[in-house]
Design brief:
It is built from 13 helices and 16 strands. By secondary structure, it is α/β, with parallel strands linked by helices. The protein starts with 16 loop residues before the first strand and ends in a 9-residue tail after the last strand. The structure holds adenosine monophosphate.
């Protein structure tokens, strides 16, 4: 029997699929490296090189300073599955002398799968169609030379915007199956550089980044600013796009709280003082929405700002108590140039109140600086901070100004000298109608710089 004969019970041979490949090189004899790679690929069982574009000369994009590239494209037919072809391409790159180096760094050979039949794939090491294909003339031109209708190749939208929990969960589970780690940044939108700093951290540490944008009615009391809370959705999505967010979850209220939704999560002592006392029920709303979001997104890491230090303490307790997945990452406070902590609510401040609001970081700074100069009495430090707030006529109220232990935020006894494990926290109101500003600082860190 000839070796290629097929018995009736054998599975049928896989149908060959057309693959478009990007070719590049900027080290050594570039044309020879590309030609040798195509020759080697053509000899791999299950791979046929059908057509190769002319090579063009192009400037490097990103990465360290480096010499020009030769780029082209090839049309293959293959019976290999996508990750098997990827493994062949990686081995071919290594055989050409490619070693691990900086992202977008110089390389003797670069072989990218641009399309794989009509398939869409989004895994840790392979995304097709290639997400940056359409933006790169050194890819588009060679493809056009092969007669490819580049505009007909679907673009992977980043961020993908979805509005149902089911769509988020589906994406999240697919990424997990593809070996991707998931970073999650929950927000109420009106995104600013503070949010962006969390997103960038998630981007650096995770394979895929999910941001939720949801003004959660459950955490607002009846007299609070739910209706006037800013909702600049298109600017928010632009910020997400600039910072590499993969998926933005923008649910309507009914998707988060469908008819019949009745559960509430009450967190213990962490939720009672300070914000909890000033805004009764607030942390029940926060814990409930975050638990639901957490279960929808299934993150490996979720990112929160230390600006809301008590929120972080509440969520840390929630995560431990309910065994919610992954790691909770606490990120530093991002401040405006003059020291005011960035907040979506800063837009409510009139120009005069905005200037006066600098008293908040100034108050924290005064306490931290005095501590560095040897003042360790709790009440004395609080008095110094309070004097800065009281000096501003437009500071219409101080909801709390307290020194507590870092992380757990337990009360700091008056007779215990304040040490570097303490944190000073404040909520103060400015202007009329009042805007509440929250801030805090550790006695371990540099004092906030106030301009
Ligand atoms: P929000 O949209 O106000 O609910 O905030 C969403 C997340 O961004 C929370 O974890 C906040 O603590 C965080 N965040 C807000 N402002 C800042 C800031 N200035 N610096 C760092 N994180 C922030």
């Amino acid at each position: 029997m000839p070796t290629n004969a097929r018995a009736d019970h054998d599975p049928p041979a896989p149908e060959p699929v057309e693959v478009l490949l990007g070719l590049g090189s900027n080290l050594g004899d570039r044309d020879a490296a590309i030609a040798a790679a195509l020759d080697a690929l053509g000899r791999v069982p299950g791979v046929e090189v059908v057509e190769v574009s002319p090579l063009l000369e192009s400037e490097p994009v990103g990465g360290p300073p480096q010499s020009k590239y030769r780029n082209g494209a090839a049309r293959l037919r293959t019976t290999l599955v996508p990750h098997a072809l990827l493994a062949v391409l990686k081995a071919t790159e290594r055989a050409a002398g490619r070693v691990p180096g900086p992202r977008n760094g110089p390389r003797p050979l670069d072989l990218d799968i641009l399309t794989f039949g009509g398939r869409t794939l989004d895994t840790r090491d392979l995304v097709v169609p290639h997400p940056r294909l359409h933006e790169r003339s050194f890819v588009v031109e060679p493809l056009r030379a092969l007669g490819v209708d580049v505009d007909a190749i679907p673009r992977i939208a980043r961020p993908r915007v979805v509005d149902t929990p089911a769509a988020v969960q589906e994406a999240s589970l697919a990424w997990r199956r593809g070996g991707c780690s998931i970073g999650f940044v929950p927000t109420m939108g009106a995104l600013h550089e503070g949010h962006a700093s969390l997103i960038r951290r998630a981007r650096a540490e995770c394979d895929r980044v999910v941001v939720s944008i949801f003004v959660n009615p459950l955490q607002f009391a009846a007299h609070e600013d739910l209706d006037k809370y800013p909702r600049p959705l298109s600017a928010d999505l632009e910020l997400c796009e600039r910072n590499g967010v993969d998926l933005a979850f923008v649910p309507p209220v009914e998707a988060m709280y469908p008819a019949g939704f009745a559960s509430r999560i009450a967190v213990g002592a962490e939720a009672e003082a300070m914000e909890g006392a000033a805004r009764p029920g607030h942390f029940i709303g926060v814990a409930t929405v975050v638990a639901r979001l957490w279960s929808i997104v299934l993150p490996d890491r979720s990112y929160y700002g230390r600006k809301d230090a008590q929120q972080v303490a509440v969520l840390r307790r929630l995560q431990q108590d309910l065994c919610l997945s992954g790691e909770l990452v606490e990120c530093p406070i991002d401040r405006e140039a003059d020291g005011l902590a960035r907040s979506s609510r800063n837009v409510y401040l009139s120009p005069e109140d905005r200037t006066a609001a600098r008293a908040v970081p100034r108050a924290l700074s005064a306490a931290v600086r005095a501590h560095r100069n040897g003042v360790h009495g709790r009440d004395e430090l609080l008095g110094l901070a309070r004097a800065e707030l009281d000096a501003e006529a437009s500071c219409t109220g101080v909801d709390y100004l307290e020194i507590r232990t870092d992380l757990e935020l337990a009360p700091w006894p008056g007779d215990r000298p304040v040490d570097s494990s303490a944190r000073i926290l404040v909520a103060a109101r400015f202007g009329d109608p009042a805007t509440r500003l929250l801030d805090n600082a550790s006695f371990r860190d540099e004092p906030p710089v106030v301009g």
